[in-house]
Amino acid sequence: MGRNVGFPEEGELVVGTVKKVENFGAFVKLEEYQGKEGFIHVAEVSAGWVKYIRDYVREGQKVVTKVLRVDIKKGHVDLSLKQVNEHQRREKIQQWKNEQRAEKLFELVTQRVNVPLDAAWEQFGNRIVETFGAMYAALETVAGNQEALADEGFTGDWVPVFAQIAKENIVPPRVEIRGNFKLGCDGPKGAHVIKEALLKGLDVSTPDVRIVIQYLGAPRYAVQVHAADYKTAEDELELAQHRVLGYLKAHGGEGTLNRAEA
Asked: pLDDT tens digits for 164-202?
């Protein structure tokens, strides 16, 4: 990432490279903060007793640690290795790799518009990060919506170049949520009413959203909503629920929707 020039915050997860290992702990270069190092005390290396610290950390190793304390005046950053679980480690490493890739793509943007990299960061790069939270998040957003930069007030020759590079190199994120309808309608037209109700549920109000409904065996029907983010997916599932159950009730039927694990 390389654009953070301050200090990390307490509780933050950070990626580092082990620079030196001593019996009492390990010194770590913080990859996301320019010129900053942290220290893992031997007591924060593992939950159990550590007989040989090099059984857990070694020079050159990439580690994900939790920031315990920050003393800005002294320049000290205390870290913990044992307070990071495997899921957190994997997620943080992936996030860090994404940001490294994003910086390479941003550099490609600056080359195409012939703006020096440092100048580009000053002119619009830092504001992109402030607006979207991270450079990779910006690329993901723009890959899914080519007008996202303009919508946020960005202008300049670099904007269409950024959008094109995002479109060519980033696959927009997709999420899926699921539920199960339980539907019933008595009478000779009951099956037809249920079919029409389910067709109402396939309507979407947001572009790039896909709804799939599958028959599981009367009276159960599975519904899946695919969208760019969870909020959009949740909103569309709620609308589908209102459409299906509303139509069903209006024609003498009844039903429920239960959420399912994705």
From this structure: 999 999 987 778 899 999 999 998 888 999 999 999 999
Tokens of 192: 């037809």
The domain covering 175-260 belongs, at the CATH homologous superfamily level, to EIF_2_alpha (3.30.70.1130)
169 phi-psi bin (left φ>0, alpha ψ -120 to 50, beta other): alpha
Top-level class of domain 13-83 = mainly beta
Q: In DSSP terms, which residues pair with 215 in a beta bridge? A: 221
Whole-number Å distance between alpha carbons of 40 and 66: 10
Q: Which residues contact 142 (CB under 8 A, 6 or more apart)?
A: 148, 149, 162, 163, 166, 167, 170
Cβ atoms of 31 and 71 within 8 Å: the answer is: no
Cis bond before residue 172 (omega within 30° of 0):
no
Residues 208, 98: Cα–Cα separation, whole Å:
24
Sketch the domain layout of the chain as residue ranges: 13-83, 87-169, 175-260
CA proximity to 3, closest of 155, 81, 139, 106: 106
d(CA 84, CA 66): 6
pTM: 0.63
Q: What are the two backbone dihedrals, phi and then psi, of residue 162, each rounded to the nearest 5 degrees?
A: -60, -45
Buried b / exposed e across 7-32, counting CB within 10 Å, b at 16+?
bbeeeebbbbebeebeeebbbbebbb
Architecture of domain 87-169: Orthogonal Bundle (1.10)
Q: What are phi and psi of 65, to 5 degrees?
A: -130, 160
